[in-house]
Each structure stands twice: as structure tokens, then as C-alpha cells.
Amino acid sequence: MLRAVLGARRRTVSTAVAEAAGRMVAAQILTAPEIEAAVCVGLYASLPDEVSTRVCFESLRRLGCECLFPRMAEGGRMVFARVGAWDQLAPGRFGVLEPPAREAAVVPGAGDLVLVPGVAFDLRGHRLGRGAGSYDAAFPPGAAEPPLLFGVAYEFQVLESLPYGSRDRRMDAIVTERTIRRVQGA
Known about the structure:
24% of the residues lie in helices and 24% in strands. With 186 residues, the chain is α/β, with parallel strands linked by helices. The protein has a single domain (2-182), classed as 3-Layer(aba) Sandwich (Rossmann fold), CATH 3.40.50. The radius of gyration is 15 Å and the shape is globular.
């Protein structure tokens, strides 16, 4: 029910507002000290109903950051690969833009930061995704050397609390067009 309600609300956001929110999110991220310390930054190619991530990618590349994007590999497993230009991305599974299969897989780990999409986030860093569990499987709780995870959303997608399970990895921060909320104890 929550996925449907928030999905409907996201679909009412105009392209102009989504792009403006993307610029504001990029500005928030570029001021984060975690970006300066990051070895690689994982992003994702936003869908039409998500905060636009292209400006963030282009800004990070101008700073010389190494950027990674996810793609779906055999068995439905999500892997990341380096991307140097947005036009390297091509439609993959479900029409989501992703790096080509010829690009070697890179495992984000300690010292890296990964931006994560979501339907909703709560103030304790829990995430409600689209239901496939790809990010939870890629970054399980208790991993030996996990990257920092920053959830990206519109401000209206940040809720007081969400249901969660033992396999759900909490976000280290949530970035919206208004602010970065760091999560205590994530």
C-alpha cells in the first residue's frame, strides 16, 4: 500500500521539479565530507519518477571522482562497474540504464560511498525499496567492509518509521533536496 501511495505521489512530480531536486541533491552531496574521503562513488541512473541523478554524476566526474553504476548480472545479482560518461549507459533489465556487460565488476567497499534509490526512508535509516531486494543482497547488514550508503529521495519520501527485516541494511545518511540526514548507529 505504501509503495503504491508514494509511487503515485512521485509520478505527479514534474520533470522540471525532478531536475531541480536533482541539482539540489547534487549540491548537498558535493558538500558532504564523505565524498572527499570516498575512493569510488556508486550511483544509479534514476527512473522518471525518482530524483534525477545525472547532475550528481556529472558534478562528481568534473571533480575527478571514480563513478560506479549497478547492473543486473546472472541470477539477478546486482554488480557495479565503472562509468566515465553518461552515454556509456544503456537500457538493461526493466529498462533501467546500466553499464555494459563488458565492463568489469567492481565491489564497493570500505572507503566508498553508494547512493541508493528508495520508495521511502525513515529517520532511523531504514529503506523501503521496490521489492526486489537487490540493494539489500548487494550490501547485507554485517558485511565485513561495507561502503557508506546514502539514500536519495524527495523530502516527502522521508517518513517517521518504516517496517523492516533482519536482512535490510540501514542507510548511513538520507539525502533530499533540502538536507543530508546522517543516521546515528547505522
